[in-house]
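Please check this chain.
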Amino acid sequence: MKAKVGLALGGGGARGLAHIGVLKVFEREKIPLSCIAGSSIGAIIGGLYAFMQSAGAVEDFVNHSIKQPLFDDIYERSSHLFDDLNHERREHFFTYLKTRLSLLKVINHNAFLDAETVDEIFKSLTDTPIEDLPVRFSAIATDLLSGQEIVIDKGSLKKAIMASSAIPAIFPPVRIDGHLLVDGSTSDSVPVHVLKDRGADRIIAVNVSKCVRKIGPISNALHILYRSDEIATYHLTQERLAGADLVIRPNVGRILWYDFRNVKEIVALGETAAEKALPEIEKLLKMDISEIVGRRLFHKKISFD
């Protein structure tokens, strides 16, 4: 019986561009994908791939999209909010003032970016119904009202991607079917379990989260909030990854989540990690389902850093 391979693509902002490299290798090696589940940037890349059926086309799409001046502006403004590690810049009065004004905007609005800006970012995405895609696809989002993880596997692909990647306080929430949705990584950073529900008998996960052992300064409230979120995300990710048969970890830990300026480099890191995992992927595809079930019972999985 033909293996049903499920691919779980995790969240991690710009680090998730490595998913494209992983998909390039899968495509080149003709590794079949029965279903894809993505959270946040994983939903963007996974959804685009499920629609385009070409990792190269996804890379071209991303390259074209981030050439907009808008992305430079997002990087600049996000660096003031989140990259507080650069104290020399913070000491400059105008930078200091800009940061404070940005924080005031967050306090007085539901997101750092307004709806018009978000529409501009996602304007090139297709509204194709998810149920019509060539590959079965699911996007993960989090409902602010119920606190539940929401699996979106039907309706507009564009809206599903927007919901799954709506970083809290940065992007405004997205309303779908009575839910008020934000970033999927809030509830499920690497959606392995969704693939089990979709009938995948071999589950491969791609983890692009930041290394929790890499610690920056913890000298103010923003640092502490950011660090606390890193720790919570790390533990959630480890719990989710326990259900995967094989985990690919591209070496992207040093890349800032909002730095989309080096697409080629990040994609290449994904390719390198996937190529390293190929021998174990081939073994996984040849295993009997009974052996795979046995490995899962004892939480045995292969991990590639």
